[in-house]
């Protein structure tokens, strides 16, 4: 496995993740997002593409539960999206960054670190997350023209944030962007209180594909990884965030919250297709049946662990 470049290596400025324009992939990607022709690289376009991706391309790790292996190669990430799938941060932000670069935006990769619910403190920029910055688009709210683009946290941003410290409302969520306490020169996104993950920190230097290889391998294959233990999906739109963890569907919206348990294979696959735009049309019935058996078994294990934890807390 290639070693990451030292942080002060001048080769980082080359943005080695960039790939030559593939017009067929670009146009197929745009078509999935609702564009019939390449749009101009404006701020309005950036916002519209970000919103479309969060609504139409799911954050999902169903591919792990299916026993598939993936890379973090940007072109592969684009191909996953074009094929009707989603992915987690390396794929969603990697693909979108590639598309934006092909459209003429000034795109920069950043190394991030999501603080999951298992950690009491921020983890720093530990490479468990890929973040995108887009430069050169000044506005009254963003005089320096630098925007945080992140469709890879699943239940967080619906549209880009200006890289300006402050509180931002993206219904139904309240988000805060501020200088990081743990990453020198970096930034911290504090998530809404509703979310399982408290937030994410990211570094100011240029990232490369190699920065993420070790964490991608760990997150997609380790038995200790939450992505391996539970098949999760997220979708974000203008007034809600919807999360499916195993068979527990959680909808958080401006009109209220709703949580329910999915009770059958038919309901599960209908939810994937209708709610998360993940029809799995490339997966045969035998593999789908095996997927549901695994998801059901993992869900039962999760419920059992929750009951045991509750009993232990009551006994104390």
Widest β-sheet, arrangement of strands: 5-4-3-2-9-8-7-6
Main sheet properties: 8 strands, antiparallel
How much beta, percentage-wise?
15-25%
Question: Could you report the average pLDDT, rounded to the nearest whole number?
Answer: 96
CATH topology of the domain at 230-315: Arylamine N-acetyltransferase fold
Basic shape: globular
Number of helices: 9
Radius of gyration, taken over Cα atoms and rounded to an integer in Å: 19 Å
Number of strands: 13
Q: What's the helix-strand series?
A: HHEHHHEEEEEEEEHHEEEEHH
N→C terminal distance: 47 Å
Q: Which secondary-structure class do the elements indicate? A: alpha+beta
Poorly predicted regions are none
Could you say what the CATH architecture of the domain at 230-315 is?
2-Layer Sandwich
Fourth CATH level, the homologous superfamily of the domain at 230-315: Arylamine N-acetyltransferase
Family: Belongs to the arylamine N-acetyltransferase family.
Protein name: Arylamine N-acetyltransferase
GO molecular function, one term: acetyltransferase activity
Question: How would you sum up this structure in a few lines?
Answer:
This protein is of the alpha+beta class. It has helices at 23-33, 43-56, 62-65, 74-82, 89-102, 213-221, 226-229, 265-274, 285-315; strands at 59-60, 106-115, 129-135, 147-149, 161-162, 166-170, 173-179, 187-190, 199-202, 232-236, 240-245, 248-253, 256-261. The chain is built from 9 helices and 13 strands.
């Amino acid at each position: 496995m290639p070693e990451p470049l030292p942080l002060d290596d001048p080769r980082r400025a080359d943005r080695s993740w960039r790939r030559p324009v593939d017009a067929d992939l670009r146009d197929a990607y745009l078509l999935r997002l609702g564009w019939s022709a390449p749009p101009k690289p404006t701020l309005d376009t950036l916002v519209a593409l970000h919103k479309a991706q969060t609504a139409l391309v799911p954050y999902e790790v169903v591919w792990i539960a299916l026993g598939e292996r993936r890379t973090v190669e940007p072109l592969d990430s684009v191909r996953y999206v074009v094929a009707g799938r989603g992915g987690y941060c390396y794929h969603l932000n990697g693909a979108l960054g590639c598309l934006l670069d092909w459209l003429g935006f000034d795109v920069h990769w950043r190394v991030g670190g999501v603080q999951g619910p298992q950690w009491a403190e921020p983890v720093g920029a530990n490479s468990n997350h890929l973040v995108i910055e887009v430069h050169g688009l000044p506005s009254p709210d963003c005089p320096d023209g630098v925007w945080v683009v992140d469709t890879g946290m699943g239940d967080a941003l619906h549209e880009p944030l200006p890289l300006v410290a402050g509180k931002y409302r993206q219904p139904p969520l309240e988000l805060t962007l501020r200088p990081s306490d743990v990453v020198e020169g970096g930034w911290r996104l504090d998530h809404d209180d509703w979310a399982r993950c408290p937030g994410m920190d990211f570094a100011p230097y240029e990232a490369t594909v190699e920065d993420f290889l070790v964490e991608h391998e760990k997150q997609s294959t380790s038995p200790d990884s939450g992505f391996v233990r539970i098949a999760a999906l997220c979708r974000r739109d203008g007034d809600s965030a919807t999360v499916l963890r195993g068979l527990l569907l959680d909808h958080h919206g401006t009109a209220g919250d709703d949580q329910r348990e999915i009770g059958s294979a038919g309901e599960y696959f209908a939810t994937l297709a209708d709610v998360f735009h993940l029809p799995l049309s490339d997966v045969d019935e035998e593999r789908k049946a095996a997927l549901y058996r695994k998801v059901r078994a993992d869900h039962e294990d999760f419920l059992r662990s929750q009951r045991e934890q509750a009993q232990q807390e009551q006994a104390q």
